[in-house]
Fold each of these.
Amino acid sequence: MKIAVLGTGMVGNAIATKLVDIDHQVMMGSRTAYSDAGQEWLGSVGGKARIGTFADAAAFGEIVIDCTNGANSLAALRQAGATNLRGKILIQVGNPLDTSKGMPPSLTMCNTDSLGEQVQREFPDVRVVKALNTVNCDVMVEPSRVPGDHDLFICGNDAAAKREVTGRLSEWFGWKSANIVDLGDITNARGTEMFLALWVRLWGVLGTPHFNIHVIRGR
Amino acid sequence: MKIAVLGTGMVGNAIATKLVDIDHQVMMGSRTAYSDAGQEWLGSVGGKARIGTFADAAAFGEIVIDCTNGANSLAALRQAGATNLRGKILIQVGNPLDTSKGMPPSLTMCNTDSLGEQVQREFPDVRVVKALNTVNCDVMVEPSRVPGDHDLFICGNDAAAKREVTGRLSEWFGWKSANIVDLGDITNARGTEMFLALWVRLWGVLGTPHFNIHVIRGR
């Protein structure tokens, strides 16, 4: 399968590397066609992938994974181009982190809006699925790092796209379908993005970003 | 022990009733001394408690549990009075829910401030501990409704107050100390209050407010 990974940071690296490892055709996109970070990643996977601009990657991918820093995601997706993205599933991973006020980060938007919604509003012809944004990138691609059952949350306006993403997250990374909770339409991204505020504090308390939560139903 | 419960809503009812059941001396406070809601609650516990104004209750309690609706908490605590609250532990339970824009609710403040912080700023001589605000009131007082290990989060500036609250939550309601996570100072209330945005959506998906999360550390 041809997969575009937008973003050359930790998240893009982790996801793109895992997808190459399981023999998918991957193109990593960044602002420039031959970015240092992109070339370094390409070397790390023995050249078994491609790099290019956001637009090159979006045109290449049958499915597009937006791993850009949330503060820059809209700008990156504009560079990717609405025409290249049209009709495709876009897994939107980044949270709109604001580190300008120090640590822990706050969000550049929340409460009555979310990055997931902004992306869907700006690209109405793209099948946006918010996913993976409540766990560290090492856990994203290797959920067995955390023992037992623990959960992912997805949301989006396109039910078929969410079913496909649920299947892909199982197939690519090993997430159990039963542990992928569909919250509903894209406005539910407010809930998963705002979880960041608790997540960063738990990271501090636990001393590792390798954790997750399990939702347990009572009586 | 003499305990003040501020607020006559669902949360105040659940907590005050449980404390009466285990033979504590409880006064429920509300805006007026003989509110209908207060009298109804007093009848429901067979008269084995007291009701009064917020100020009456705050003066009575050795420990004060603020179960008021978060949108009204500051006003209620002003009525309770800084003198009556001085030096006491205040368990601050409510989230700053904004239901004016429909459901699910948003928050009246978040991201770079929290209700827990506002209360601590306005009442610097009170030992504020934010707690219990990430679960439904039935789960607050009966954590065994949810099977297995699941977690509460507390925060506040006074370490001794947090240790005492941890002990009380175990003694009163049966929370395991190991499942009460101390996030740090009161600014961490941003994390637990913002969890509301995910909580309300999980409520919708699960079809019950009786659930909780367990944080699982990985490798």
Amino acid sequence: MPDELPFAELDLDRTARRGYPEAVYCAGKTPEQVAAIAAAVRARPDVVTLFTRAGPEHAKAVLSELPDAFHDTDAALLAWPPEPPEPDGGLVVVAAAGTSDLPVAREALHTARFLGRRTELVVDVGVAGLHRVLRRLDLLRRARAIVVAAGMDGALPSVVAGLVAAPVVAVPTSVGYGAAFGGLAPLLTMLNACAPGVAVVNIDNGYGAGHLAAQIAAPFPTDQG
Amino acid sequence: MPDELPFAELDLDRTARRGYPEAVYCAGKTPEQVAAIAAAVRARPDVVTLFTRAGPEHAKAVLSELPDAFHDTDAALLAWPPEPPEPDGGLVVVAAAGTSDLPVAREALHTARFLGRRTELVVDVGVAGLHRVLRRLDLLRRARAIVVAAGMDGALPSVVAGLVAAPVVAVPTSVGYGAAFGGLAPLLTMLNACAPGVAVVNIDNGYGAGHLAAQIAAPFPTDQG
Amino acid sequence: MPDELPFAELDLDRTARRGYPEAVYCAGKTPEQVAAIAAAVRARPDVVTLFTRAGPEHAKAVLSELPDAFHDTDAALLAWPPEPPEPDGGLVVVAAAGTSDLPVAREALHTARFLGRRTELVVDVGVAGLHRVLRRLDLLRRARAIVVAAGMDGALPSVVAGLVAAPVVAVPTSVGYGAAFGGLAPLLTMLNACAPGVAVVNIDNGYGAGHLAAQIAAPFPTDQG
Amino acid sequence: MPDELPFAELDLDRTARRGYPEAVYCAGKTPEQVAAIAAAVRARPDVVTLFTRAGPEHAKAVLSELPDAFHDTDAALLAWPPEPPEPDGGLVVVAAAGTSDLPVAREALHTARFLGRRTELVVDVGVAGLHRVLRRLDLLRRARAIVVAAGMDGALPSVVAGLVAAPVVAVPTSVGYGAAFGGLAPLLTMLNACAPGVAVVNIDNGYGAGHLAAQIAAPFPTDQG
Amino acid sequence: MPDELPFAELDLDRTARRGYPEAVYCAGKTPEQVAAIAAAVRARPDVVTLFTRAGPEHAKAVLSELPDAFHDTDAALLAWPPEPPEPDGGLVVVAAAGTSDLPVAREALHTARFLGRRTELVVDVGVAGLHRVLRRLDLLRRARAIVVAAGMDGALPSVVAGLVAAPVVAVPTSVGYGAAFGGLAPLLTMLNACAPGVAVVNIDNGYGAGHLAAQIAAPFPTDQG
Amino acid sequence: MPDELPFAELDLDRTARRGYPEAVYCAGKTPEQVAAIAAAVRARPDVVTLFTRAGPEHAKAVLSELPDAFHDTDAALLAWPPEPPEPDGGLVVVAAAGTSDLPVAREALHTARFLGRRTELVVDVGVAGLHRVLRRLDLLRRARAIVVAAGMDGALPSVVAGLVAAPVVAVPTSVGYGAAFGGLAPLLTMLNACAPGVAVVNIDNGYGAGHLAAQIAAPFPTDQG
Amino acid sequence: MPDELPFAELDLDRTARRGYPEAVYCAGKTPEQVAAIAAAVRARPDVVTLFTRAGPEHAKAVLSELPDAFHDTDAALLAWPPEPPEPDGGLVVVAAAGTSDLPVAREALHTARFLGRRTELVVDVGVAGLHRVLRRLDLLRRARAIVVAAGMDGALPSVVAGLVAAPVVAVPTSVGYGAAFGGLAPLLTMLNACAPGVAVVNIDNGYGAGHLAAQIAAPFPTDQG
Amino acid sequence: MPDELPFAELDLDRTARRGYPEAVYCAGKTPEQVAAIAAAVRARPDVVTLFTRAGPEHAKAVLSELPDAFHDTDAALLAWPPEPPEPDGGLVVVAAAGTSDLPVAREALHTARFLGRRTELVVDVGVAGLHRVLRRLDLLRRARAIVVAAGMDGALPSVVAGLVAAPVVAVPTSVGYGAAFGGLAPLLTMLNACAPGVAVVNIDNGYGAGHLAAQIAAPFPTDQG
């Protein structure tokens, strides 16, 4: 049982307390630790569990215990049970500025999907060719929350936020040349977005972006929403 | 008329395009420029205009043209017309970790209020005395969006996000000793929050925090919300 | 005579060597030193001399020796003789993202003008309202070089560079909230512009931007241009 | 004998001078150098010697000379003689915010243990689930010194320090997403802790944290303690 | 009564919970807010209250309500009641590397004193003249905790920690030339001290240093100390 | 066809819009993605396509679809069709401060060449031996644009800009000892060049430097150039 | 007597121990403290005492006790006795890249002079006009040590070091536009000088530069020099 | 012949111009380039050539052309001809704070030796055990120049400079825990040394340190030294 793991204390009542399931951050854990957690998780098919930042060894450990788990290799993410819940709430659109931003964008997409939202993916809409993003404006304006993943200059969230009413969750990626400093440059760009309505999360943190978007687009539990 | 201002092009259709009114960032503008904008604004009493980062000279300039404008000196904010619109959407709770974070917190509060949300303020609930924030848990859990303003270690958003289902908009303040580096320390803390659901905005940017919270708590324009 | 100044050695043959006149950087010089340089300059009405970063005391010192000098207070710039040379070469367009970027933009404009280029100024075309910059596309596409001054997210040069064939000289300004870090944020954005064709200069360095644009738009001295 | 090592001068009288034994920092030393030091150490079974930051090659070198040495692979630490001294002084509690912080936490634990303190380990008590740390409050309040190892937001030391009378030794770890910048984020958080009583040591420096905690919890050599 | 302050919630039971009194951080508070807190404090003469980072206006506000408060202008600190409690626990020695470090050192000294410790001050013992610190070795070795305040290279804590058994609380100061970067240089030096036993606090944070030293030198509440 | 690529949207009309062809940034793309793009490119022999930052696997993928593509391994660049267009416009000179800067310099050279400029390469002309650069002054003064690639102190662009009338495109490289910080040091040097006329691009961004130089040296499309 | 100063312990035997006199760093000291030190100094006319970083109030305090002290206002330096000792050792040349670097250069010059060296000053020889420094090559090659003060790109020390056999003491100044970051840019340039033989000191630290140059150019006390 | 190398221009007259031989920085060069340079060097046995930062492949390339070259693997340095010149000038002492600093210290030592100085090496004299450095004071005081290599807190140069009359060349190393930031921490410490007389060079730049020390300790070419 989870409580007996000597190295981790699963936050079992997080779903009850916050309304969102547990996620297991695999980086920094040994495959053995991840396998033990996966085994503990098997006893709780009623809640979704995400495994994020799962390298090949981590993924193998999870699949040894949960062979039918959903697995997106590029996004380094697994989910179990493998089917997301029936969606409710508003639409979450995830946009990737460039192809190199796709792994982070897909981590966000799957997270929002497994947390119960409808999702759409938009790719290669960087600001160097404005017509590409303008062409998707209809879709973007239907969203209740938009995730934008961008590296290099990180300018896309500013542009998108200026065009829509919904909040934009901006996730900087570590894509780029030297002075991107591992994602610092787009991070600062997004924090300084001249259009209000940009919510910034950590560099390459697709999971956090998808989670935040899912919360924003959630049906409000009371009658106030 | 606004279009004729030689130094600014007011984004008059922003309300139409984004659903949110224009804000005039006063820092870096001369009092004369601010006064000219205020005069142009007077012709449009149907939309709210916010003047942010308004020092004493800026405030004087605004009030010379809009004498009945709402003015919160500590928050360096003015609004006109002086009465916020009838609120709709969900509740926005604004929490200040310490007394020194109040100016930023109030800038956020007024922004959300003038953008049409119901708001509540909670003060002095820093993590050094956990009982203070735990005592407000009921109020926090009623919110559709929570703004948390904190300087120094900036740890409060992590703690709050771990206790509620709603998104937390975290605004770092420049309050603190040397190694806070003008708000850099709480900014990094918030970006690295171990609890998902934290949306970070710029240092001391109460306006941006309030705007984002108002968007999150907005009634969704379609039937999906 | 200049050669006898005990604290400075004017680069008198710079015009001959580089084709561009001398500029006197006033910050860090005493008003007395600036006055002495202005007096030396008076003997050379055949070449333009610019005085940059001239505070009120510096300006007073220059005007005491060169009373008819051109003076733009906001741009902190003086020029003598007061009339720019007859323009040749291509058009230089200077764009300011926001009103607060105007002082830097005008320093660039005057520099290009006094170095012999035709110039046009465009204001308040930040990316938060894309329609504003798109409306000026015709003008922008007529330019041989475009200077873009922007603070905060510094995203405008990326967007402009993606729309035109001419090089964009990007000058970050120190306008913005805390995490702009005195212009560092837009500086990094510009260096990481996802559209090629962006030439970055120092923070708030309108003089350098205008000089570079004037060089780019210069008639080429040989038959190759 | 140690004095004859051509590349190191062991601080043999450190135990006499400071009351604490020598530690050999293996990173940056060749396995041959480490083996030579281990051989020299063998002549002094009366004092404990720690080998820290010992990679596999270093560990092999130590064990070739001191086959019965204590070895914790994850903590990259060896100790000889393999049994810690009889404990005295107060209790040292070591808390790890997450499973990924365990290697650093265990380096601290073993260091305190081999320096003569009673120790207890607490795992997975990050602030995202406050109930987990609150449940351990009794144990934490029995400690004379508490080591807290945390990456990401590094918020746990602030929270713990606000709940207890004992000093908290905070050791930031390099665990986390991009904007943790290799431990810089939790380091700054801890330096800015809004609760007084937090003693910060270097990133990932479990040895230093355990040593400092052992000093704080030491029986005071005179009658003043 | 404190509970009614609209802008602050005094942590009245902190003494009960942590064993240490409340401190009021004045920077960022208005004089009116500080005066209101001082008035509230007057009702509780049984516990010590410290007012830290109190500029002239803050001090005036405190003294208007608590005219007999202790006040050290250089240290920007007030305390009330004006007499520290009867000391117990071990000796706290506070060392200032240079004269310019004195304000921070004295803030530490008074804090430890009002928290109930015996204290001694040592001045001008920087490492550029080693004989000065070596001459005070007897006093340093009698301490249960040593505070070292140093700017510039911040090397003194390393040297002191190598000579004594007690923990050294290192507080970097913002004293120094350009590349000290407002205290960043000595902060990094102290975090990287090659001698173990150095506990680092925030730049210029004499209060935090004194508080931590007082905790380390405290009589242990149970029989384990 | 390109439009059907699921992970990228080629900017097919970029040549029409900007006058310059598409470049495919390979870093962060999988070899499969690069191969698919190369296959799509094959249908458009009328425009040049550059593949930049192409590691061995990327290069193999390109060559599998475009076997006759031009390939410079050191510069990590491929181009197809393999012959550059007939040159027009002014001369672009590319100077490398040291041998280690050659890969970046050659990426710039090939980019300018495939964008239609005549080019010359100058090597090993660092400022530590001024005579080397002075000896090339004639060539440098014939250029319409000069690219200077330099690591370490990055001083060469300042020196060159002081000697010529043409703009200098400065590209910092990540060559150097520790305090070069991966190219940050020469980047800052170039941004602070005391000679005006220096256009800075990103660290190691030879592609961007060559592109910008090609634009500067372009024949101006109208009669104004 | 000095020993009785309650806030400072003058390093009276420093001349004996190191061969160089005491310097009093005035920044961070009160005028009263500086005056007391000046009074103590008066009793020792046999050794030179320098007062560095002396603002107007500090200077007044020194002159009240030592009315005939040497005072260079721009360099913020005083010396007593007012006459430097008879020079010996080699020549120290001090070069200032620009006029704005003069205060730092003169602090270096006076320091070397009062420590007993012959000195020469060279001004306005920045690398933007190479002919200016080349013209002084004869003087530079006669020096035993050269101090170079430069802000902005800080490129001058690299260039000078490549031309001479003597060591170059490089002192970065805080002169420049935004991305000079208060002297960080020239500091990094100098540390990365591609010519060996550059000794870097702290930003704006003319005193340290002059002291180091005086040591380098000193007659060697034994027969080995 | 060297002049014909297509990728490098050897500075053949550097010995004539500066009095010091050429050094070949191998990092960033291919083994083929290094071998070609070594072959060119073979024709000039009259001057010493150093190969620095030579990894195993570089060393092999050098030795293939110059089989009898001197080679110190740890210091990654080769020299040819293999015997240093007959020493003259003053003594250079090289001190390594810890064993891990030895590679850098030995690079400095060999450089000074091959540039013609007598040298001595002192190891493991870090400030955590002051008695170790004090024991070597006689040797240190005989030196005309002292190189100190130190990582972590980098405090040793300050301490040594306070004890001797000769200049101290301080070379920070990248040895240490996380917050040493690859040598940044000791670099800042050394730049802020509270004792004057510290000449700082780049991180891990043993070559630069040895070269500078050799220049300082050189016999002065005129009668002034």
